[in-house]
Amino acid sequence: xxxxxxxxxxPIGQYEVQPYSEALKTKWVSDIKLLPNDIEIAxxxxxxxxxxxxxxxxxxxxxxxxxxxxxxxxxxxxxxxxGLTEENPVIKPYEEKxxxxxxxxxxxxxxxxxxxxxxxxxRLHVLLLNISEEEYLNxxxxxxxxxxxxxxxxxxxxxxxxxKHHVAHINKLKxxxxx
Length: 179
Hints:
66% of the residues lie in helices and 4% in strands. The protein has 179 residues and is mainly alpha-helical. Strands 1-2 form a two-stranded antiparallel sheet. The longest helix has 26 residues, at 152-177.
């Protein structure tokens, strides 16, 4: 794969787990809190044609990206709750490409998912603020698709990255198209 394609797919780079620090926790929890606003600003004033434009050749449309973030972060919320209340629970993977092609993604306006993200992230933010360092590092979930145990710290960083990753897709597309 060429560097150019890789840059388009990962405009902020790929996620890498970082060592725990209070400063990084504060940043990532803030990123989660601000994500709904960031998405709302990124799609502000986009028309239907623009929302139906793929961020890269063969990639999802802006509309699919917005609905995907809502789908993904609903799963994130559940994964954190499971990780906090069960011992290393097996989390349910889902076919995100399949979800991105279901009828609701194409027929429900993106503002519905933005509204959902505002409500969801309000609760998620409070939950994440109140997880201790010990819980972030020692509470885990097991991802059967990747055959990998993940700490809640790993999940926090991954979902903070995930939101910024997709907002960057939208902003890069707007920049590229001159919108």
